[in-house]
């Protein structure tokens, strides 16, 4: 159940509350990505300490390894990974896009060659929903067709028609007790197709709706346009989820456009390359400028890394390939994303979101390195979306 608590008077930003089988999620919210049952480099205690409310897992990857028999024996995904809070599972539909070279689209799903051993697999609406039922996630995503950014209008049209048809098949499948199902709006950069897809999905009466087909290599203005072309047609009394987004500044702008839920691999991905997010932009801590820098990653940050370690020490760890370095940057980046969402919720409650948005965007300097990482944030065997 979703409750819309407040709407910003200066934008489309919304304050909400989503009640799931494993707890309440305050929105807007950022979901750390735990594709294979673990948020990379972080443990559940650390996620809990930074007030993570919900994480994401992936149907395709968990189906491949460890397999449904192991997860069933463990008592479901929550027990298997020892996470007591809500989980959203992606449907595996994104692999239609990311595994394009080893898959074949058919009427009722996709035939895959496993990226591990080349074995033949089939995943469609029925299979995806059954896997997610066994996983026992709080929110299951429908199986969709995500076309690449370079797709022609004809290809996007075919993907939209498939997505609508598959969504109907997903809607008819059994689900785990208390499990919600979200539809996914496709349509690429074509506003009329996004409107058509959104309206068709709404007729199927899902529990929430996602903006899909974004962050797949398109320029940022096109990404924003895709969101703007979708949200006006989504129900105001249900949650809205932008899949695979984004940088801190993008999150602020997307909340202003009426989005409630986000996931992205960037916090942990760029951490592994020595990059830390701050409210002024991203910084590369491996650089010589930080060799004798005795301050924290970000002044005023309350994360474990900033409370305990200096930039100079973390730079040393990164440059000698000590695991602690990338772990601490992963802690900081994940904490930073979650804290930005907390701040937005507080400002929405106080009626000062407009001022917060202006100040945040004015002070944030985009990083070319991070934007390049966003465009390549979806390799088939690492982290999805």
Structure description:
The protein has 385 residues and is α/β, with parallel strands linked by helices. It folds into two domains: 264 residues, Alpha-Beta Barrel (TIM Barrel), CATH 3.20.20.105; 98 residues, no CATH class. The strands form four sheets. The protein has an eight-stranded parallel beta sheet with strand order 4-14-13-12-11-10-6-5. Strands 1-2-3 form a three-stranded antiparallel beta sheet. Strands 7-8-9 form a three-stranded antiparallel beta sheet. A hairpin with a 6-residue loop joins strand 8 and strand 9. Helix 10 runs parallel beside helix 14. The protein starts with a strand and ends in a 10-residue tail after the last helix. The C terminus is likely disordered.
Question: Would you summarize the structure shown here?
Answer:
The chain contains 16 helices and 16 strands. It has about 375 residues and is of the alpha/beta class.
